[in-house]
Specification:
alpha/beta; 6-stranded parallel beta sheet; 19 strands
Length: 543
């Protein structure tokens, strides 16, 4: 007779078999059997977030580096709190397992008013996840978790939710049902001979990189060394370092860069959705012919009509192209000079728009080690100097919300730091966004995450001010916010904190804060420094 263990124990063992070292969550009466098993076994770190949105966001950020983020939430309203973070993980293509409780199986979908009950929880989890499952019997639990992890880790990756009724979590099953991990499904290599022939015939090919190409550093570098011009989405920044002479960085909407794009004669899109905010709502002209590489066949011609689609792993396809290169077939000294001039013009224009805050960007760059990571919330500073001016030395060194939601910066910074304990993380947030997950300051303090949280305090929603000014005749409504003294609040949490009220303190304060190991907070009170002007993503009309 096999040893009998609880389903909660079986799930803990299964996560351990996949190498999961950190679990983020909020404990509840409807997930305690799992949490108890994790605690008894003592092999995974449990990070108690202050809210389910924070837990899933931390797991999302962690999963972008570790290969599988895991979050544990309660049922009903608790699972509902996680929806926005699941939407973000879907947009980012993060391999993430979301485990959530459920009421006793006897009361499922009975509409009896049972505590934590909600109507069609599985429905809203399906809408916000790549897939959602319900465990209907104890013997099925491990198999469902295997299936969920495989789907989460199989490109195109994304979050998968599993709801487990509380009585099933406590039920006993044979230990023999805890089986070995299941590998992600493999993709097939497409025939790329036609793509290679067209690439050879182009004089100035353009490679547009997205988040699906994050693992393609070597192949992209070899293509760029051979003369291919490279531009990236903001999510793909650093795949080719900014310092490379053929990098257009992420200056998609800069006039000097747009003029260069018009001179290219082929576009190869690798793992990018060509998002609206990076293509001026799909009015940016992309050179033809247009070729697309994506692991998801449904991505074909999603936003721009493509001349050819190659369904496969971007790294495999780009590596196969790079392996065919002999010499530097697209090298052109005059074109390289034009790239250098165009990117310099874009950089200068952005610095002018940022004003004194370009000095803050430089102060952080000077103090942050080369392997440091910037995690930025959706805020004026993040959308201006944080998104394009701040350096990008490698992939996943500039993390942000792909869904465009505010409030994720702090928990995202915590998850990033816990996945990279030897690297310093800068969390760039605004006062408005920080207020959505303010409680996670306590998580930052408790977990001693190596984060310097930079709070850009302009007393409200700066992005909305800019949009209202540009599109609503300057009428300003509902964007002024009462905010706490963030410096005093951080100190009350036991965190070292500084306040900056003038630009001449950028260098000294940022150097001191970044040099200090562990968590710290720097509040920049923008009223005394100057306004940052930003009116939302570049577009022809607001609607």
């Amino acid at each position: 007779m096999s040893e009998m263990i609880t389903v909660g124990d079986a799930i803990a063992r299964t996560l351990e078999s996949y190498g999961v070292e950190t679990l983020f969550g909020v404990i509840s009466i409807h997930n305690l059997p799992i949490a108890d098993a994790v605690g008894q076994r003592g092999r995974m770190r449990f990070v108690p977030s202050r809210g389910e949105a924070g837990a899933v966001t931390m797991a999302d950020a962690h999963g972008r580096f570790s290969g599988l983020g895991v979050a544990l939430t309660s049922t009903g309203a608790g699972a509902g709190n996680a929806v926005g973070a699941l939407v973000e993980a879907m947009n980012a293509g993060t391999p993430l397992l979301h485990l959530t409780g459920q009421v006793e199986k006897a009361w499922l979908d009975a509409d009896t008013g049972f505590i934590h009950e909600t109507r069609d929880q599985l429905g809203f989890l399906r809408a916000s996840s790549r897939r959602a499952y319900r465990v209907n019997s104890p013997n099925q639990a491990v198999a469902i978790v295997h299936r969920a992890i495989q789907e989460a880790q199989t490109p195109p990756c994304g979050p998968v939710s599993v709801e487990i009724p509380i009585d099933i979590q406590s039920a006993k099953i044979p230990l023999a049902l805890v089986t070995a991990p299941v590998a992600p499904a493999e993709s097939k290599m497409p025939d790329i001979e036609t793509l290679w022939q067209q690439l050879q015939q182009a004089r100035r090919p353009l490679l547009w990189l997205g988040g699906g190409a994050l693992r393609c550093q070597d192949a992209v570098r070899r293509l760029a060394d051979a003369g291919v011009t490279v531009i990236s989405s903001t999510h793909g920044r650093g795949i080719l370092p900014d310092s490379h002479p053929r990098s257009l960085r992420a200056f998609h909407n800069s006039p000097s860069i747009e003029a260069l794009l018009e001179q290219c004669d082929l576009t190869l899109v690798a793992g990018s959705r060509l998002r609206s905010n990076e293509t001026r709502s799909w009015t940016l002209t992309l050179p033809q012919p247009r070729m697309q590489i994506d692991i998801d066949p449904a991505a074909a011609s999603r936003n721009y009509v493509m001349d050819a689609m190659y369904t496969g792993d971007c790294d495999a396809v780009l590596t196969a192209l790079a392996d065919r290169i002999v010499g530097k077939p697209w090298a052109d000294a005059a074109w390289d000079a034009a790239i250098a001039s165009g990117t310099e013009q874009a950089d200068v224009a952005l610095r002018k728009q940022c004003g004194a805050y370009a000095e803050l960007n430089d102060a952080i760059e000077n103090a942050l080690p080369s392997d440091g990571i910037l995690v930025r919330d959706i805020t004026v500073s993040g959308s201006l100097w944080g998104s394009r001016l701040f350096r990008a030395n490698g992939p996943l060194a500039n993390i942000h919300s792909l869904a465009g939601a505010i409030g994720m910066g702090l928990p995202m910074a915590i998850g990033t730091a816990l996945a990279n304990p030897q690297r310093k993380v800068i969390g760039l947030v605004g006062d408005g966004g920080l207020s959505l997950n303010l409680g996670e300051l306590a998580t930052l303090a408790q977990e001693r995450a190596n984060v310097t949280l930079l709070v850009m305090n302009d007393g409200g929603y700066g992005v909305m001010r800019g949009i209202q000014d540009k599109y609503f005749g300057g009428r300003q409504y509902y964007n002024e916010l009462h905010t706490p003294d963030f410096t005093a609040l951080a100190q009350a949490m036991g965190l070292q904190a500084w306040t900056i009220t003038s630009a001449d303190r950028f260098n000294s304060v940022m150097a001191e804060a970044i040099a200090m190991p562990g968590p710290s907070v720097v509040e920049v009170r923008m009223a005394g420094i100057g306004e940052l002007k930003f009116a939302g993503p570049p577009q022809k009309t607001l609607y």
